[in-house]
Amino acid sequence: MSLPATQSACPCGSETDYDLCCGRYHGGTEKAPTAEALMRSRYAAYVMGAIDYLLQTTHPDKRAKDLKVAYQTTYETIQWVGLEIVSTFQGTPSDKTGKVEFKATYLQGGQTSVHHEHSRFKRHAGAWHYLDGVITDSSIG
Ligand SMILES: [Zn+2]
């Protein structure tokens, strides 16, 4: 796995340089301070194929044996084209749990679709982790 060159906008849509945005979390130098920041960094990891980061930021209780393969397959078959954070609930630096509702637009087999999910996040060993999510049926067109 190698990450793209620096000095480019972060894939999470923040309009901040990758190095100053999710790159800090992917590189392991900093932990995402909020559930939303973790959500954004996981989306960017999906875009870039940072599979190990996706595994590391999944809550240990939820790391299924085939999770790495599942992430790899998603990366190889889906092209993510946009992220919209719809709403957040808790998930601040002083919370232990948090929720993020988001819409992620993707291309698969020439079709544009939207992955609309309510995700739950939980602090583990001081860092935010993705716990699970409920997918809401929604698509474009
Ligand atoms: Zn970012």
Protein topology:
Layout: H1 22-26, H2 35-48, H3 51-56, H4 67-77, E1 79-90, E2 97-108, E3 111-124, E4 127-136
Antiparallel strand pairs: 1-2, 2-3, 3-4
Bound molecules: zinc ion.
Provide an overview of this structure:
26% of the residues lie in helices and 34% in strands. With 141 residues, the chain is of the alpha+beta class. Strands 1-2-3-4 form a four-stranded antiparallel sheet. The longest helix is centred in the N-terminal third of the chain and has 14 residues, at 35-48. The relative contact order is 0.16. The mean pLDDT is 93.
Entry keywords:
single chain, 141 residues, alpha+beta, Nuclear Transport Factor 2, Chain: A, binds zinc ion
Shape field: globular
Classified by CATH, the class is: Alpha Beta
Named CATH topology: Nuclear Transport Factor 2, Chain: A
Number of distinct helices: 4
Oligomer: single chain
Tell me the fraction of residues in β-strands, as a range: 25-35%
The sequence of SSEs as H and E is HHHHEEEE
What Rg do the Cα atoms give? 14 Å
Mean pLDDT: 93
